[in-house]
């Protein structure tokens, strides 16, 4: 028996899931030889000969690996739990048949506004030409008022409902990733669609994020765990962002670019606004900061991307962030566009993602 270490790297994880997939041998549990925590033990001695082959094929081309890529959770305790209640989603492993309900999910779109995410679900329903009646597309999380979730074919549309920012999306991501894991989903792509403040670009431009950065323009997300600060990488999937960019070229009058996205903990002081209830810096300092951000490659600012990039990266999910800009922060702080223009702008990321999904599914001309 071989006990894989607690901190599996993605290559090992793919070997693990491929082996389970091929030989249908359920994992058991044992203490980790290194640290003693209970962890999943995989019976691999019978198939030792296949490991090198898997390893070499994956190492040579990790990002374009075409086999099944399962969602993996990095928690040695999870598999030993008798039941997992996804409290904020009002779902659970004992109360719901998650593989039957969600096993076919390939694309997850996350966003904040419930209206926006429901509109996206309905839009995808039409684009995918699904037979089910529109009225049957119901909020799967209706039993909780925290989040909304709609499923249309292989597409999930998730909304943070009223929450904004890292804490809200982080709770959702923990449960969403566990849901995908319990449902045995594979080859899942996750995309955040939202709004943002642009830097030095015209409002209405869609920014496809290559790297999410913090307020110091660093590609990192700092998570406080117990009383430690754990720093995680926030690189997003390069090929995916390029694929999205190529899709955008097919859409007439679509203004888009690939750039860094700065993720902050606050909309006002955290984004250098002069119009919050508190402001302790000058206009000059604000502009100097935003210009430094621009020079560092930042093209827009929002409030969720770093944690999404960090968590999805660790769990083997290909992730992207696509946000439209509502203003140019070098010009102003207030979002003063007419309501109908704002609504129109918010549709641009949806249009791009639906184009991407239909293309991936081979439904485009
Ligand atoms: O349009 P959404 O997805 O809400 O994203 C952006 O808008 C909110 C601030 O107005 C923050 O959540 C920020 O990330
Ligand atoms: O300026 C903006 C606009 C939308 N969302 C943000 O986080 N900032």
UniProtKB/TrEMBL annotation:
GO terms for biological process: CMP catabolic process; dCMP catabolic process; UMP catabolic process; uridine catabolic process. Its EC number is 2.4.2.3. Substrate binds at residues 271, 273. Keywords: Disulfide bond, Glycosyltransferase, Transferase. The keyword Disulfide bond applies. It comes from the Eukaryota. Residues 106-330 form the Nucleoside phosphorylase domain. Phosphate binds at residues 146, 192-195. InterPro entries: Nucleoside_phosphorylase_d, Nucleoside_phosphorylase_sf, Uridine_phosphorylase_euk. One of its GO terms (cellular component) is type III intermediate filament. It catalyses: uridine + phosphate = alpha-D-ribose 1-phosphate + uracil; 2'-deoxyuridine + phosphate = 2-deoxy-alpha-D-ribose 1-phosphate + uracil. Pathway: Pyrimidine metabolism; UMP biosynthesis via salvage pathway; uracil from uridine (phosphorylase route): step 1/1. It is an enzyme of class 2 (transferase). GO terms for molecular function: deoxyuridine phosphorylase activity; identical protein binding; uridine phosphorylase activity. Homodimer. PANTHER family: URIDINE PHOSPHORYLASE (PTHR43691), URIDINE PHOSPHORYLASE 2 (PTHR43691:SF8). Catalyzes the reversible phosphorylytic cleavage of uridine to uracil and ribose-1-phosphate which can then be utilized as carbon and energy sources or in the rescue of pyrimidine bases for nucleotide synthesis. Shows broad substrate specificity and can also accept deoxyuridine and other analogous compounds. Belongs to the PNP/UDP phosphorylase family. This is uridine phosphorylase. It comes from Rhinopithecus bieti (Black snub-nosed monkey). The lineage of its organism: Eukaryota, Metazoa, Chordata, Craniata, Vertebrata.
């Amino acid at each position: 028996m071989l006990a894989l270490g607690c901190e599996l790297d993605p290559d090992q994880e793919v070997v693990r899931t491929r082996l389970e997939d091929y030989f249908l041998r359920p994992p058991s549990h044992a203490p980790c030889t290194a640290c003693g925590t209970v962890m999943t033990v995989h019976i691999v001695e019978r198939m030792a000969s296949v490991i090198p082959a898997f390893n070499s094929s994956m190492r040579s081309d990790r990002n374009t690996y075409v086999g099944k890529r399962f969602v993996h959770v990095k928690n040695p305790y999870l598999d030993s739990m008798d039941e997992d209640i996804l409290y904020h989603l009002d779902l659970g492993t004992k109360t719901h048949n998650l593989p039957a309900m969600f096993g076919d999910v390939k694309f997850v779109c996350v966003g904040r506004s419930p209206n926006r995410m429901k509109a996206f679900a309905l839009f995808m329903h039409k684009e995918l030409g699904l037979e089910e009646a529109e009225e049957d597309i119901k909020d799967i999380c209706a039993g909780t008022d925290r989040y909304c979730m709609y499923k249309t074919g292989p597409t999930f549309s998730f909304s943070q409902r009223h929450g904004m920012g890292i804490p809200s999306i982080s709770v959702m991501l923990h449960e969403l990733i566990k849901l995908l894991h319990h449902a045995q989903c594979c080859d899942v792509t996750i995309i955040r669609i939202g709004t943002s403040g642009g830097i030095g670009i015209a409002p209405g431009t869609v920014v496809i994020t290559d790297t999410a950065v913090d307020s110091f323009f660093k590609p990192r997300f700092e998570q406080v765990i117990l009383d430690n600060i754990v720093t995680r990488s926030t690189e997003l999937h390069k090929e995916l962002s390029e694929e999205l960019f190529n899709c955008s070229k097919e859409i007439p009058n679509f203004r888009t670019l690939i750039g860094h996205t700065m993720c902050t903990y606050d909309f006002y002081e955290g984004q250098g606004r002069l119009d919050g209830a508190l402001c302790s810096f000058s206009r000059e300092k604000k502009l100097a900061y935003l210009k430094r951000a621009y020079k560092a490659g930042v093209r827009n600012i929002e409030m969720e991307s770093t944690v999404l990039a960090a968590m999805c990266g660790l769990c083997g999910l290909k992730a992207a962030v696509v946000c439209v800009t509502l203003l140019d922060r070098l010009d102003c702080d207030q979002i003063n566009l007419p309501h109908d223009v704002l609504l129109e702008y918010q549709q641009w990321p949806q249009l791009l993602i639906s184009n991407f999904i239909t293309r991936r599914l081979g439904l485009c001309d």
